[in-house]
Amino acid sequence: MSMNEFKPKIVAFCCNWCSYAGADLAGTNRLNYPADVKIIRVPCSCRVNPLFILRAFQRGADGVILCGCHPGDCHYTTGNYYARRRMTLLFSMLDYLGIEKERTRVEWVSAAEGAKFATVMNDFVKTVTELGENKRLEDLRCKK
Amino acid sequence: MTFSYYPGCTLKTKAKELDGYARRSAQALGITLAELPEWQCCGGVYTTAKDEIATKLSSVRALEAAKKEGNALVTLCSACHNVIKQTKYALDTDDDMNFKVSNYMGIDAREACDTNVVHYLEMLRDVVGFDELKKKVVNPLTGRKIAAYYGCLLLRPGKTMQFDNPENPKIIEDFIRAIGATPVIYPMRNECCGAYVTLEDGEQAKKNSSAVWESAAGFGADCIITACPLCRYNLIKAESEIPVIYFTELLAEALGVK
Amino acid sequence: MQKIGVFVCHCGTNIAGTVDVKAVAEALGKEPGVVFSAEYPYMCSEAGQNLIKNAIKEYGLTGIVVCSCSPRMHEATFRKTAAAAGLNSYMVEIANIREQCSWIHKDIKVATEKAIVLGRTAIAKVALNAPLTASESPVVKRALVIGGGIAGIQTALDIADAGYEVDLVEKEPTIGGKMAQIDKTFPTLDCAACILTPKMVDCAQNEKIHIYAYSEVEKVKGFVGNFTVSIKKKARFVDETKCTGCGVCTEKCPQKKTPNLFNLGLDTRSAIYIPFAQAIPKVATIDADYCNMLKNGKCGVCSKVCAAGAIDYKQQDQIIEQQYGAIVVATGFNPIKLDGYDEFAYNESPDVVTSLELERLMNAAGPNGGTLLRPSDKTHPHTIVFVQCVGSRDTTDCGKPYCSKICCMYTAKHAMLIRDKYPDTEVYVFYIDVRTPGKNFDEFYRRAVEEYGVHYIKGMVGKVMPQPDGKLLVRGADLLMNEQILINADMVVLAAAIEPDKSARPLATMLTASMDTNDFFTEAHPKLRPVESPTAGIFLSGVCQGPKDIPETVAQASACAAKVIGLLAKDKLLSNPCVAHSDENLCNGCSSCEKVCPYGAITYVDKEFRMPDRTTKIRRVASVNAAVCQGCGACTVACPSGAMDLSGFSNKQIMAEVDAICR
Amino acid sequence: MHNNDKEQILRSSGVNVLKCMRCGKCSGTCPSYEEMEYHPHQFVYMVEKGEIDKLINSPSIYKCLTCFACVERCPRGVEPAKIVEAVRLIATRRQGENHLKAEDIPCVVEDDTPGQLLVSAFRKYKK
Amino acid sequence: MQEMMKARAKELLASGEVTRVIGWKKNEFDYDITPALFESAEEIDHDFVYDDFCGPNLSKFTFQHQKNDTKTLVFLKPCDSYSMTQLITEHRVNREALYLIGVPSYGKIDVEKIKADGMTGILSIKSEDGDVHVHTLYGDKTYAKYEVTSERCLNCKSKKHPIYDELMGFEGEVMENERFDEVAKLEAMTPEERFEFWRGELSRCIRCNACRNACPACTCETCIFDNPNSGVDQKAAKDTFEENMFHIIRAFHVAGRCTDCGECSRVCPQHIPLHLLNRKFIGDINKFYGTYQAGEEVGQRAPLTNFTKEDVEPDIVAKGGKV
Q1: pLDDT at A138 (0 to 100)
Q2: Residue C605 lies in a domain
Q3: Residues C35 and C174 in one domain
Q4: Lower Cβ count inside 10 Å, N or C end of chain C?
Q5: Are residues D66 and D81 in the same domain?
Q6: DSSP H or E segment with residue B69
Q7: E194, A98: Cβ pair inside 8 Å?
Q8: Is the same domain home to D104 and D72?
Q9: Alpha carbon of residue A100 to chain centroid
Q10: Domains held by chain B: number
């Protein structure tokens, strides 16, 4: 598969109150970003269990991005602070295991930041596309 | 109790009395001031620039020497105190500065300079204690109305110096009370005397210094005390109508060792 | 076996323009579990909804997926549709193929493929949905208002007007708050007492309102609709039911050297006191720190002169417990301490005062009977300098980073009143910006300048220097003249920043209501829900939420009351059923979930479990209060054993979505 | 060129000029205000605007007493004195001639001139 | 030491202060030591042992054998007592029903190191005064103790007991150590090298669950890997999510709670350096959120159930992890 044909699989977790609304606003303003991004709506960024991200990678995702309210603006007051710690540690671990750190990202996107949402997604898809297909995490268990 | 002592350039020349009285008083109070063996001039003023290390090295050496001796470092001249304390603060808070200085000196500067820097007045307050000092006064200066002149160097920047409330200090006033005199509070006590500008613009310095002594005299002071040779020089140059002397002179007088 | 129906909306051409809706419906029709699939131009129209209803009935659908616009748009609509057809409304999932697909992609092939993925993701999720029912909890028809200033008074009056019981708790001996200390109000210059005291009397006379003055909230338990609050009635050493407020005791009390806190310590009063003439409740209070009888048992004059026999030196603090459906916070503000601003000589000179002190100095009921005199020598001041933004917009340790909002206007008021009453007095105002957004506000400020000749100077004062002759030499910058100026003043008035009352922080902890870094209460939404705390059942009135002037405070207080009334009008509360729940068999009782819950919705109980060997074992397990939980899901991730899950967004559902996307 | 100077000033002073809210308290407190062509608040504003040359060529840079009154009293933590110092350092580092030369000293020095004065002045006026 | 411990245990049993004792017992070989429950002085006399092979962490065993209605004496090495403190913090053991005696540990011997040196047919091993004498069918050999001390003991984090009712022997200090060096070495590799490294290591896993069973932080009532509703089960199938992710998920589950006792690596029959996963998390937590040692104090708030508003952003990882 040559580079320009490669279409990455990207899972985007978006919190219901800010980032999902930001994604909607991007749509309302007809701001384009690649169709490779598929959004899963969660109530809050703190609902995203590292298991979900691992599962995505195991099922063949090439990149996973988590979007939440800006720190301090969480609908539930503190959810994104916990998400921030969890994701920092998880991403660091994935990098440690050899999954390129560019394949995981957290972005804070408010309901008003439709343009930021589109920019972030364009940039993320570009980064992941350049990296190419992900090493399947399931390979970790396969004999060399 | 032993302290490493950093006298500074002027105390060896034009301000010998500031130094002499301090030493004699310390002795009377049972405090040993061990002069650092090879101190260098602090530079007189602190250069705030973050990309400038050469001017800070003499302070670093003083701090390092005191650390090696295992003592807190006592200063007397306001300028020395300000420069050394600001240098220490920069090493403690500015990683880049610490890195550069460490590289230049071949030491771990932050570690090597981890010395407590105290001004002589702080030593009187925190180590001797003003109540204790009061007990040791043999010649109380009762009835004398003394104006404390802090100037800028002892107090500011407040965050770095941690000396006293920079806008409403009381340490020298407490000192004045301890030696039996009456402090005179006047608003110009923490304003600048004109400092080094006097060298090229005597008029400016005179204006600044005049405002200080006039304010003190206006509130009925019969004498101004200071810890800074340059402040004293400027006030005298500005034709102060009341005497301007070093605080150590009064201390020595009260302790009967003048 | 699931029977899922899929409904693809064209949204006119909004979706159909870039998504081949027929192809989507066809592809999704082949997904496992799907028994019905259709497309329609406008699914949200009545005809579209009927299509859904009929399909539910005809095919006995157990779940539906609507591929349409954002769920933020029409999820509620389609849930109602499902419910109308007898399907649990939480068996509906929306695939957002408009905002997140047709509107952002131009290529029909790409958009169609994505729409199919989004559709099958929603199908995968709905297959795991479970019917949910909102739980119900009763509402106690009584409100608690904490703080008896103008905010608390207005809120209490409005709630009582609607026929609900209200308890008003005030920590001072009288209600009235800051407004009672103010002389005149901007921009109309009417007398504060004249408009406030009738409201205070209304409170006292309203049968629905119960005033707990000289009282504080001790403990709060429970949740929206059903709070249990302990209120501490502090000992006044005077029996409220007997005291007539005649004031004889205050006249006869020999201890007259007590600082008068109502006048901000500018004068003194007796140890037994009534803060001011119109106090509500008008009963005396003994200041235990100054009363000779309470301090050393020598005196007892007040007891002797009291005809009503109301004095009780042995009175103790009393705890009252009461149930409430809603709690209103109206804890107000105070000017900051000015210890960090000695360059203005506030601690050094009595003639440097804060604006609130000036209010008392100018008030007819104040220490000088309404004549403005210098505190130091009681002479008439000829030059007064006002300094704005003392501690406001100040990012240093002693200041506040925000604008205190009221200072520009009250300073204009002060300046105008002084110039009006004492035309021989020159008034200078140092300002950084004059901020006057408000009805008739800028006009008011301009009158101060144009009609009253107040000197406004753009700049800041650097230092105030008391002079031997008692004058205050003020040095400041006039930035427009590019000059440093010196003014020889008689008085200096500092517009001290305002900060939330110190009691607010511990109260917020008790209420599990969130605060910002400045200790202002956080609102549920900064624009759309400004009078509610994110914690359900807690409402915000007045300056506790952010700096406000009187009209704004009153407006917010009434808005707050409306929200409280709306809550109390309900007999039962329906809660969002998408909440967390713990599987007791899996729960370790480790307390991780409790630590991350922002609402305190999780408690622990010891529960008996039957073991396989027929013995029993008692284990500590988590229990979620569904009425308090807001469904964020923080606990589900904190839980190490996976005991905690979130209805509507369960682990399995989200993983199914992940799988569907990555398939 | 100007931009480089501005960057250099910001870097060496460590001051964020954008924090300034233009209240003028620094200038309201400065003891050298009268002697200065450009005043403390102008230093901050002009550095922000990149008007560095005017400052470098102004005698104002030798009038600041480094008394830190402006630093102490600034409500935004801007530290104008550090900006003045950084501008002056650009000037003294750049100048072919120092503002104060050793050969000038005998003319100004008097019997009672403290050594502290001379070292301070050299620090401030010389490379 | 061992005799003192035996005497004290018997004393406490006799006085009725405790009714059960948890300690170590020797099995067929000198070096085959397992945790054990003793209920009589006779059992203690016969089986109780405390020597340089007593590696097993007794806190997990205590958790598994706890009884609420009677008091149990537990001997704790410093690292065991960290685990115990963590279990108490998480309400997993009942402090009231335990009598804890802290005992010093001077480093435990890793028999695998001896075996790796080619020693077979081991009949006995004796550790005396810094020497370890190995007696085999084929002859004897003596090692200096440090040569055969386990990695976790060489990098001991602490010789102090954060919790105890009674101490025996000398109480030690928190130690300076180089335990993050191996982690740093891996961090310095390229992602490809790291991936290869871990693939090589984790491919050897036979999913025996020994690590999970030994881990004192793994005390879930039902492990998510055994719970058909967790979405990560399906033990039987090959190449499933659970199979592949087991160790990562496990490491994340104990992140912030793992005291770095090293039991996982000790018990792994495939010698997978599992502790390097846990240490990565510990190192990151220290770096990002300030030094934190799980089990240092009862009631500590674990870093993952805590936050500050100024926490680093996740992109710190992309920026190379420098704080």
Answers
A1: 60
A2: yes
A3: no
A4: N
A5: yes
A6: helix B57-69
A7: yes
A8: no
A9: 14
A10: 2
Give the single-character DSSP code of C438: S
**Cβ count within 10 A of residue E183:** 20
CATH number at residue B191: 3.40.50.11810
Q: Decide if B196 is inside a domain.
A: yes
pLDDT band per the 50, 70, 90 thresholds, residue E198: confident
Separation CA B12–CA B8 (nearest Å): 7
Q: What is the pLDDT of residue E236?
A: 45
**Closest among C457, C493, C492, B151 to D31, alpha carbons compared:** B151
Same domain, yes or no: B110 and B165: no
Give dist(CA C613, CA C594) in Å, integer: 31
CA torsion A105-A108-A109-A112 (nearest 10°) is: -170
pTM (2 decimals)? Answer: 0.72
Mutate to test the interface with C, among B155, B168, B190 (most CBs of C within 10 A): B168
How many whole angstroms separate alpha carbon E61 and alpha carbon B254?
74
For the record, the structure tokens of C659 come out as 């799988």
Whether residue B207 is found in the same domain as residue B245 = yes
In angstroms, what separates the C-alpha of B181 from chain D's closest C-alpha?
29
- CB-nearest to C342 from B165, B218, B220 is B165
Find the helix packing angle between C441-450 and C407-421, rounded to 10°: 40
Asked if the Cβ–Cβ distance from C342 to B168 is below 8 Å, we say yes
Cβ pair C560, C539 in contact under 8 A = yes
Give the tens place of pLDDT for each residue, B3-39. 999 999 888 888 899 999 999 999 999 999 999 988 9
Residue A142 has pLDDT above 60, yes or no: no
Residues B90 and B178 in one domain: no
- B101 with B60: CB under 8 angstroms? yes
3-state DSSP helix/strand/coil percent for chain A, to nearest 5? 50, 15, 35
Residues 6+ apart with CB under 8 A from E312: A88, E288, E323
- Do B167 and C343 count as a contact with CB atoms less than 8 A apart? yes
Query: pLDDT band at E178, cuts 50/70/90?
Result: confident
Amino acid letter at C5?
G
**Residue-number span of the structural domain to which D102 is assigned:** 98-127
Residue A103 φ then ψ, to 5°: -85, -10
Instruction: Supply the ipTM of this predicted assembly.
Output: 0.67
Query: pLDDT, tens digit, for every residue of A67-95?
Result: 999 887 788 878 999 999 999 999 999 99
DSSP for C496-555 reads: E-EEE-TTHHHHHHHHT--B-TTSPBPPSBTTTBTTB-SSTTEEE-GGGGS---HHHHHH
- What is the DSSP secondary-structure string of B159-223? HHH-SS-TTS--HHHHHHHHTT-EEE--GGGGS---GGGGGT-HHHHHHHHHHHHHHHHHTT-SE
DSSP-derived secondary structure letter, C4: E
**Residue D29 to chain B, least CA–CA distance (Å):** 10
CATH of A3-139, one of 1.25.10, 1.20.1740, 3.40.50, 2.60.40: 3.40.50
D16 with D66, same domain: the answer is yes
DSSP class of residue B116? -
Nearest Cα to C115, choosing from C231, C40, C221, C8? C8
Q: Is residue B127 part of a domain?
A: no
Hey, of D19, D20, D29, which one would you mutate to test binding to chain C, going by the most C CBs within 10 A of its CB? D29
Print the domain residue range for C266.
248-305
CA nearest to C322, candidates C232, C233, C231, C234 = C231
CA geometry: angle E97, E101, E103, nearest 5 deg = 150
- Note whether C641 contacts E224, CB cutoff 8 Å: yes
Task: Reply yes or no on whether the pLDDT at E241 is more than 60.
Answer: no
A and E touching (3 or more beta-carbon pairs closer than 8 Å):
yes
Selection from E230, A98, B202, D53 nearest residue C640 by Cα: E230
